[in-house]
Amino acid sequence: MIDARTVWKDVERIRQSAPLVHNITNYVVMNTTANALLSIGASPVMAHALEEMDELAAIVKALVINIGTLSPGWIEGMRRAGLAAREHGVPVILDPVGAGATSLRTDTCAALLTEVAPGIVRGNASEILALAQATCGLVAEGRTKGVDSAHESAAALNAATALASRFACVVVVSGAVDYVTDGLRGLRIENGDALMPRVTGMGCTASALIGAFAAVNTSGLAAAGHAMAVMGVCGELAAAISQGPGSMQLNFLDALYTLCPEDIEARLRIIPLENVAQQP
């Protein structure tokens, strides 16, 4: 059962415990995602050096792997961090930025899915379709448009279900409507605002926030659902007082910081989906 009460309970847990969330992320969003984690109440560490991955895994509460800017050294660091996190029972979140756009991105994600076995994967529709095509044999039409999606989120629900079942994980498809599934159960989250895609790094921010929620909730489905709900609600709150993308970015951070249970209660639009594999 996911509702305003359960969402708020996890927000309180984050604010009370300030979980340390390790982010291996791209140059474009480091500052943005670190500030989002601080605003919700978590504590970010942005580290990439291979030599410190094992030590960090022993002290962090979640690991977010974002492949936005790849290099051979970073790929090995991601693999090492992921394996160390799994050894310490630390939840791992994978953000397959641009999967499907190049072979390097798709192959890197497929390898991380197999070797690291992340508990949660969050991507846009095109990224999830590309991963399902590469690892589950599904046929997808079109290609990823850079790091943006060329598909609506609903078009990737079956692909998300296949990925979740194949790798025993939770898959999030983000878009105008967000979908979350563990292969059997699912959630449809209708919060958000059209101004959000105009701000660089909103998808990466969603993955970082999922890391914070996974740090305090052992249910991957609930953690991902709660994080995406908060992301959407805060997006609506920020957009209501923003003039454009610049003020939207600042107001979004403030919305995370000032979020209260009344905001969630008034705005939350989340629908449980049964028999996700049978959804059209």
Written overview of the protein:
The chain is α/β, with parallel strands linked by helices. The chain has one domain (4-272): Ribokinase (UDP-N-acetylmuramoyl-L-alanine:D-glutamate ligase, 3-Layer(aba) Sandwich). The protein is 49% helix and 14% strand. The protein has helices at 4-17, 30-40, 53-57, 72-87, 103-115, 125-136, 157-167, 202-214, 220-239, 245-258, 261-267, and strands at residues 20-24, 43-46, 62-66, 92-95, 120-124, 170-174, 178-181, 186-189, 270-273. The chain has a nine-stranded mixed beta sheet, with helices on both faces. A hairpin with a 4-residue loop joins strand 7 and strand 8. The longest helix has 20 residues, at 220-239. The two termini are 23 Å apart. GO terms for molecular function: ATP binding; hydroxyethylthiazole kinase activity; magnesium ion binding.
Rounded to the nearest angstrom, the distance between the terminal CA atoms is: 23 Å
Overall mean pLDDT? 94
Question: Stretches where pLDDT falls below 50 for ≥5 residues?
Answer: 145-150
H/E element order: HEHEHEHEHEHHEEEHHHHE
Structural class of the secondary structure composition?
Answer: alpha/beta
Instruction: Count structural domains.
Output: 1
Proportion of beta-strand residues: 5-15%
* The CATH H-level homologous superfamily: Ribokinase
Biggest pleated-sheet summary: 9 strands, mixed
Write the layout of secondary structure elements.
Layout: H1 4-17, E1 20-24, H2 30-40, E2 43-46, H3 53-57, E3 62-66, H4 72-87, E4 92-95, H5 103-115, E5 120-124, H6 125-136, H7 157-167, E6 170-174, E7 178-181, E8 186-189, H8 202-214, H9 220-239, H10 245-258, H11 261-267, E9 270-273
Parallel strand pairs: 1-2, 1-3, 3-4, 4-5, 5-6
Antiparallel strand pairs: 6-7, 7-8, 8-9
Helix pairs in contact: 1-9, 2-8, 2-10, 5-6, 6-7, 8-9, 9-10
